[in-house]
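Quarterly update, task 2.4: flavin-adenine dinucleotide-bound model.
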Amino acid sequence: MAIKLDKVDVVVVGTGWAGGIPSAELAKKGYKVVALERGRDHDHSDFVGSKDELRYASRYEIMTDNSISTVTARGTLDEEAFPLRTQSENFEGNNVGGSSVHWSGVTQRGRKFDLQARSITIDKYGEDKIPADMNLQDMGITYEELEPYFDQFEKTAGTSGEDDPMGPPRSDSYPTGPMRPSYPVKLFKEAASKLGYHPIMIPSANLSEQYENPDGETINACQYCSFCMMYGCDFGAKSDPVATVIRTAKKTGNYEIRTESYARRVIHKDGKASGVLYVDMRTGMEYEQPADVVVLAGYTISNTHLMLLSEIGKPYDPKTGEGVIGKNSAGLASPGGSATGFFEDKKFNLFMGSGSLGGTFSDLDSDNIDNSDLGFIGGGICEIRQRGSGPIGSNPVPQGTPRWGKEFKEKSLHYANRMLSVGFMSPSFGWKFNYMDLDPNYTDMFNDPLLRITHSVTEQDKKFSEYFSARAEEIMKEMGADIIEKGNPPQEWRHTQGYGETSGGVIMGDDPKTSAVNNYSQVWDMDNLFVIGASALPHKIPQQTGTLGALAYRAAEGIDKYLSDGSGLLVEKKSNAIKA
Amino acid sequence: MSDQKKQEKKNEDNQPEQESRRRFLKNSGLVAGGIVGGGLLGSFIGNPFTKDITTSNKDERPKKEFTETRMFFTRFEDFFVLEAAVERIYPEDGNGPGAIGLGVPYFIDKQLAGPYGSNKFDYMKGPVQEVKVASSYQTLMSRGEVFIEGIRKLNAESLRSQDAKFYDLEGEQQDEILKAMEAGEIGLRGVKGPTFFNLLRQMTIEGAYADPLYGGNKNMMGWKMKEHPGIRPGYSDLIEEEKFQIIERMSLKDYQG
Ligand SMILES: Cc1cc2nc3c(=O)[nH]c(=O)nc-3n(C[C@H](O)[C@H](O)[C@H](O)COP(=O)(O)OP(=O)(O)OC[C@H]3O[C@@H](n4cnc5c(N)ncnc54)[C@H](O)[C@@H]3O)c2cc1C
Ligand code: SF4
């Protein structure tokens, strides 16, 4: 039997952006907040001197322990899923701050299209444009309604950027100016301008200057040190929850983080959550943390897994299209579109850089592209990045070069500082047959079923990728590369968690028949349970974190409202009668 | 032949690993005549080397770090096969040292002795299925076990097809066997050949370029070849430079101070 603890106002699973934001906002208002975090304690002092590529990038030092739990994967409904066993196949951030610590920091806003994909598509092109098996949905909130929360998130994070002439409208400029361009970024911007695009510096959580946020937390200026993505920042210059919201929450005295505490169930009765059941991983003891409001913010996989294990909401059924939990898993194999260029007469300082140093343009994004004559929906955000290449991870060679031996060594040394690539970050849509449920065969450390992901690549993905690889190729040509390789269209999901930007499973909308949460991230079927994060996205938004930061601020506001006036459901249910 | 000599000769012939012995003697700076027993300890009895230590303060052994000692591999022979294989994957050339010169075999040895080698953070519950995705790690064997199995199969294949040990083959012959392993043409028990090969290739690259603290990338030579400065505090002052920068290399030892 689990030991029952004293009740608090709010219990939050997770300490990333999605959990940290409501924790800080609610603790500031005086609510008692307890956070459960499966990983270790983390603060800035853990990252000082952490410039070790083998340890952090190759050995996943701050990532999840798959011996506790992982996911299983398959392509189609008739296949048997198999577990992703190693951390290179499946990783996410563990420890305080989660993936929001090791992220690169590209801080984009979701576009108008992303929030109302279905109605905008129908408005522009008619309903026939939507493929029969695509679960294209609106989120039940518009860009204009979410704009103040984007602004709030960027001000907390200190986002460094410049106004985007082709981007969605903003109520204010970025709190800090853009990062400084490296030579490859300058080349990219020149080439993109020549082709008629409007390039700008990528909006970045690696800050261009020291900044104090509205909560009084200071984030330092980025040193372009290159040990960024997969690492915590050595200098406290990457905006993450540890440097901001977690610190703010702790200062209130109303916030407690329990580390090495693994949440296993939401406890509920008669449609109300009463708390969270968790295991102290140091002792194996089970505890129940009662609370008035329960928040799940453990990222897409964890959020979906906990909802299914706790038997809350109706699990999605790919055969009928009914049910909601597990629906629209995406982001596992984003189609993208890219081109790689090898330069003979130019050598770049690729060992320098930062997670989100780069150039971008929005001219072909989902709001600006004209899909009328294209065999796909949505557009891509163009990016060139200079993350700072690690010598282990970066061994660029032109296609056709052997993978090892004399020629491999020769060429990988020659091209180490001569390879650039340009890509388009794409949405990844929800499809009837791409979903998550509980695996019938494999179990985790506690003998609970693992989460199973069923995902396959579609014709739309392939066409998207072909189109955007061709655009990337044009840019690369203009940049003057000697050898240009167009990215291949995705043929099959490679059964890895890819770049750790999974989404879906507990999606947001205005109709409980087709969505699990409303636009305050409140669960339709359980009004004191809030599920926050990318799990709410009906399709994956390219560089999603800015959007989930905004959604988290809105959720915090909703929770306060719920707790202060006992309002029940914060949004009225709608019935859209769209085909599921 | 004196009785002792005869006994020594017998012992030598009895050695299952002549090559091991030869290399051991070479590496340790011992003189062949000093051998009296089968085990390593025996080798030191009545050895002139012992005298050296007592009579002189000079260490005349070839320069080798204390860490260049096996921690994981038990059999000499397995280690020789490993050395030969990684050197083919990352050979010495005009650019600089190959895998052996960079210390890659000892890097791998140490990695396999630690949590990575025992898959501490991986999901290791069965059953294992046949899967379409070749890159997926699907076995309940630890990486250490996969290495032992794979290395021995490289050698067995060499003995079968060339009637010689893997490390005695010519480079091109070794490549043929490595390619067969990479293509899954050599049967392994409990794991697929490509899984072993990918691991071998990946760890060779890691050993060439990881911080020297792990035993590879000797003298930061891997970084030198790649014109990578290793670990610098940051590049804030240089990030906008268009000219390629050759920057003095630093390791974590220098950085952490
Ligand atoms: C390599 C990489 C680079 C990325 N770069 C970018 C980028 O440049 N731009 C961008 O927009 N996005 C990026 N992302 C995505 C970004 O990291 C995520 O969108 C974001 O961090 C998600 O925030 P979150 O708070 O929802 O989850 P997290 O930050 O992962 O936090 C979830 C927390 O919950 C804890 N937790 C989970 N389950 C449990 C449980 N059962 N019990 C207790 N605790 C639990 C976890 O340990 C973790 O600390 C990147 C991701 C990766 C992997
Ligand atoms: S590149 Fe900048 S933000 Fe990233 S870790 Fe280095 S100093 Fe921090």
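Highlight for this quarter: The two ends of chain A are 41 Å apart (CA to CA).
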